[in-house]
Write a structure and sequence with these properties.
Number of strands: 0
Order of helices and strands: HHHHHHHHHHHHHHHHHHHHHHHHHH
Mean pLDDT: 86
Shape: globular
Strand content: under 5%
Distance between the termini: 6 Å
């Protein structure tokens, strides 16, 4: 429930200076996001070593970085986003940070592809707590006039962490392999395993610092103070049940036989599409269904893990959205029922589709293409350049988005469109050049241009909902970046590479096909967002929202 602010209250709060504590707390959140992406992105510099030790191909490496992480990150982001809307966000982030740090360290003890996949799934679940909590906290620490800037500063942790991970990973692997060329004599760990452990353990200490942050009053800065939910975990459990296959049938049945029938049809259709993609792409059999079939004595049609997890993921998202429509129609109306919101998040999802592919495959590509470059040098120059480019791009892009918003209601969306189109010519040159120096320079340029869209997209998604809906809106936003960008982009680049004999240049550039789709979505958002942002309260009340 929410309360509409008066014009005087809103203007007063907008003009007040931002307290120093808000900037301090933002700094801590940036450190959390830095570690978030160190733990996530370090897989890039370790990819070739993992490929050699575990005997996997590029398609699996894309699956490990993308789908295995993304599906669980996205799906658990739904109930955790709901929990961020009803519980203490600082506590939630603290627990999540501890979990993903422990699972990153556990990745270092993996001896096979299955164990490493399970560990990365755990990292995905833990990291799902971070951004729904952080976006909601930042929206309560900073006024609307500075929100895109603050969210962009927070998002800079993505690029700093991604860059630092390459540098740290390169140093650790080179140093470890030099000291123990046959593996650690005590635990038998290879350099890539030591790297996972080294970056995972510090997160447990950072969690103690995060726990000391003060929880802001939800919605107060917008004059929309929202009372605390007396039963915060009820909504979390309900959301959790809506995304677990099996329990989803019970939820659908409770809404009537038509809902149950539709639910079953959607699941069968999703699995049929997954089976079709397995046959068409020649992806082979997956471990998950094969293991399940062996356990129960039944032979399932072979579906590769990539497409099986995506099918389950999209089905679970459908179940959640269908349940949200019945349980909280105002939130559904302002997110899933809003063409402006959907065009914005899906449009940015196409940016993420290409950006995740380029950032993940950059290090493996450079290591295979430019002979004589050590992991340490590769990590330093590629990671450092990526961090600088990403940081400058996201911060300047966020600031530009706020400035353009003052001139035109669709100003932020224009920045997203810029982030989609501007990196393309530079990326084509980067992944076809034979010059190591030019590759490194263009890595900075491409990273900066692509990063410029993130703060604008995040702030736009937050600006289209009420304060009490921000955690859920963030989770929905990340469904687009993960289920469209992260779960598909890196895998498809890896698949094309594996199918073409390890040609990563062809694999990465193959992701550019999604550009026209993103262009159409963002042009639609430019037209739709201004009216949607101006009618939030009216549309929420029309959908059944009752002001306090």
């Amino acid at each position: 429930m929410s309360e509409e602010p008066s014009a005087v209250q809103s203007q007063s709060r907008e003009s007040e200076p931002v307290p120093a504590y808000s900037w301090y707390a933002l700094g801590v959140l940036v450190l959390v996001y830095v570690l978030n992406f160190i733990d996530r992105q370090i897989l890039s510099i370790l990819a070739n070593d993992i490929k050699a030790d575990l005997g996997v191909d590029d398609a699996y490496l894309g699956f490990l970085y993308g789908t295995a992480f993304a599906i669980f990150y996205a799906l658990f982001g739904i109930p955790l986003g709901r929990l961020a809307d009803s519980w203490k966000r600082v506590r939630l982030m603290t627990l999540g940070l501890g979990l993903w740090s422990a699972m990153t360290a556990f990745s270092g003890f993996a001896r096979d592809a299955a164990t490493l996949s399970v560990a990365r799934i755990g990292v995905g679940v833990g990291e799902a707590t971070a951004s729904p909590s952080a976006y909601s906290l930042i929206s309560d620490w900073f006024p609307a006039r500075l929100r895109a800037t603050a969210l962009a500063i927070y998002s800079s942790g993505l690029y700093i962490g991604g860059g630092v991970s390459l540098a740290i990973g390169g140093v650790i692997v080179d140093g470890w392999n030099k000291a123990y060329p046959a593996g650690d004599p005590v635990f038998g760990l290879a350099g890539w395993q030591a790297a996972f452990i080294a970056v995972g353990l510090p997160g447990l200490l950072l969690a103690l610092w995060v726990a000391s942050l003060r929880e802001p009053v939800r919605g107060a800065i917008d004059g929309l103070t929202t009372a605390e939910d007396p039963h915060p975990f009820r909504g979390f459990v309900r959301e959790l049940y809506t995304i677990i296959p099996g329990f989803t049938f019970l939820g659908a049945a409770a809404r009537g036989w038509k809902s149950l029938l539709l639910n079953i049809v959607v699941l069968i259709t999703a699995l049929a599409v997954a089976r079709g993609l397995t046959v068409i792409l020649g992806s082979g059999e997956g471990v998950i269904l094969g293991s399940l079939g062996d356990a129960i004595g039944f032979a399932f049609p072979p579906i590769t893990d990539q497409w099986l997890l995506l099918a389950i993921g999209y089905y679970a998202v459908f179940c959640w959205a269908a349940a949200l429509r019945v349980r909280d129609y105002p939130t559904f109306a302002l997110t899933w029922g809003s063409p402006a919101f959907l065009c914005t998040i899906l449009g940015y999802g196409t940016v993420a589709f290409m950006a995740y592919s380029a950032s993940y495959w950059g290090a493996p590509y450079a290591e295979r293409t430019f002979e004589g470059v050590s992991k340490t040098s590769l990590g330093f120059f590629l990671g450092g350049g990526g961090a600088v480019g990403g940081f400058l791009g996201v911060v300047l892009g966020g600031r530009l988005a706020d400035v353009l918003l003052e001139r035109t209601p669709s100003g932020r969306v224009w920045v997203i469109l810029f982030g989609l189109l501007s990196p393309i010519p530079f990326a084509v040159i980067q992944y076809t050049t034979e010059s190591w120096t030019l590759f490194i320079v263009l890595n900075v340029v491409v990273g900066a241009l692509a990063a410029s869209a993130l703060g604008a997209a995040a702030a736009t998604s937050q600006s289209l909902v009420l304060p009490r809906m921000r955690g859920t809106a963030t989770a929905t936003f990340f469904l687009a970046t993960t289920l469209v960008g992260l779960a598909l982009g890196p895998y498809l680049a890896g698949y094309v590479s594996a199918a073409s004999g390890g040609d990563l240049s062809r694999g990465v550039l193959a992701t550019l096909w999604i550009t026209p789709i993103g262009l159409i979505l963002l042009l639609a958002a430019i037209r739709l967002v201004p009216k949607a942002a101006a009618t939030i309260a009216e549309r929420a009340q029309a959908a059944g929202e009752v002001p306090l």
